[in-house]
Amino acid sequence: MTDRHQTQYFTGEGRTHMRDCMHAAVETCHQLGIDRLVIFTGNGDGPHYVAREHLKLERYKNLRVVAVTPPAGRPYRSDITNPESPMIRAGVPTPMRDELRGLGVPVVSAHLPFKEMYNGTERRSEWTRVNESFGIFGGGVAYCIQAVLVACDAGELEHGARVVAATADTAIVIEYACRTESFLSPLEGMLVGHIICRPAHYDISKRLHERNKPPVHAPAPRRLEAPEAPRLATGTVEVLGEPKKRTRRTKK
Prior knowledge:
- By secondary structure, this protein is α/β, with parallel strands linked by helices.
- The chain has a single domain (8-210), classed as 3-Layer(aba) Sandwich (Pyruvate Kinase, Chain: A, domain 1).
- The protein has helices at residues 18-32, 45-53, 94-102, 126-134, 140-153, and strands spanning 8-10, 36-40, 64-69, 75-77, 87-89, 107-109, 163-166, 171-176, 191-199.
- A 7-stranded mixed sheet has the order 1-9-8-7-2-3-6.
- Helix 1 (18-32) packs across helix 2.
């Protein structure tokens, strides 16, 4: 017997789709009997929305949410598509963190496993390539996977648990969660199930991709005009008759 799961597609990437993504993730947990939802968040909005709008409902009463956020204070552009946008700092603000804890949502801040350590000269490592490889699915899949690794490292998830992981625009089922040290293990490494929802158009993470460039329309072919026929002069044409004979006069 084959399990059939549908994937929901959003028109693009980003926080615009956060509520739809959270709803799809929570509902999938309910349908599959999963009691753990890990949410990667930059400011706490995603887990706060789930805690306030979903966890209060009877059908989701057994669902436990874990929020994972980047290291507090890390600077980044508020709009990554605009190099001139204001700089802001990562991390869930203290008031939001306190409110989430009051709602039963633990917040874990940690260095993300796929982000290499900066040695002062370059930022290239094997983990960078791993992160870039997941980029073929858009920007959210790598964050979902890293959030589960971090949650397991922090003891908020059991090694081997079946969970749902989500970002603002992507949600996936993790069939087997694990710690960072076991990520690629053939015996107890992470196993990913189906994709619940994701962007259909990568307008943020792949904004410079050839597919996202505006189409260049070729100029319309020049219309060839038929050459004009030579114009004939118009006017009155005088037809000359035969020349008159000249008469010689003789003197008398």
